[in-house]
Write a structure and sequence with these properties.
This protein has about 150 residues and is an alpha+beta fold. It has one domain (about 1-145): Muramoyl-pentapeptide Carboxypeptidase, domain 2. It contains five helices and seven strands. The strands form two sheets. It has a five-stranded mixed beta sheet with strand order 3-5-4-6-7, with helices on one face. The protein has a two-stranded antiparallel ribbon with strand order 1-2. The structure holds zinc ion. Zinc ion (ZN) binds next to β3.
Length: about 150
């Protein structure tokens, strides 16, 4: 099933952990609708801006899968509202900065990024139709901090 021009349901539900553990990672209609919104409003504009194909590393995670990888039950991945991804050859810090300045989003988190290592970590971004909070954070595995870039307060 196609979710948007360049992204399929298969790409947004694929998980090696699910495959290994035999977990059926199947979203319902509401969760599929949320995934479509993430594709249309986050992934497609990012792909258009950078002009390169990208493959999300994690999209929808059913509760069983989400628990299997040690994530919290309140994760937006469980609702199909969040996606983790990188863009080939683009620093994750630059990617997070671009999203922050150009897109409407609910929560943007630059995860496990280390200064001076452009490919470290990844970007987590969620979209909630009609209820986007525009919260931009960074997370190092222990603490969340507000995401800011030089030149900003
Ligand atoms: Zn995530």
């Amino acid at each position: 099933m196609r979710l948007s021009d360049h992204f399929t349901l298969q790409e947004l539900t694929k998980s090696s952990t699910a495959e290994r553990k035999g977990i059926k990672n199947a979203p319902d209609d509401t969760q599929i609708e949320s995934l479509k919104n993430v594709c249309l409003n986050i992934l497609e504009p990012v792909r258009t801006n950078y002009g390169v194909p990208l493959r999300p590393s994690s999209g929808f995670r059913c509760l069983e899968l989400n628990r299997a990888i040690g994530s919290s039950d309140s994760s937006q991945h469980v609702k199909g509202e969040a996606v983790d991804f990188e863009v080939p050859h683009i620093s994750n810090e630059d990617l997070a900065h671009w999203i922050m300045l150009n897109l409407d989003y609910d929560q943007l988190i630059l995860e496990f990024y280390r200064k001076g290592e452009p490919n470290s970590g990844w970007v987590h971004c969620s979209y909630v139709k009609g209820n986007n909070r525009k919260k931009a954070l960074k997370y190092n595995g222990k603490n969340y901090e507000r995401l800011s870039f030089s030149g900003e307060g």
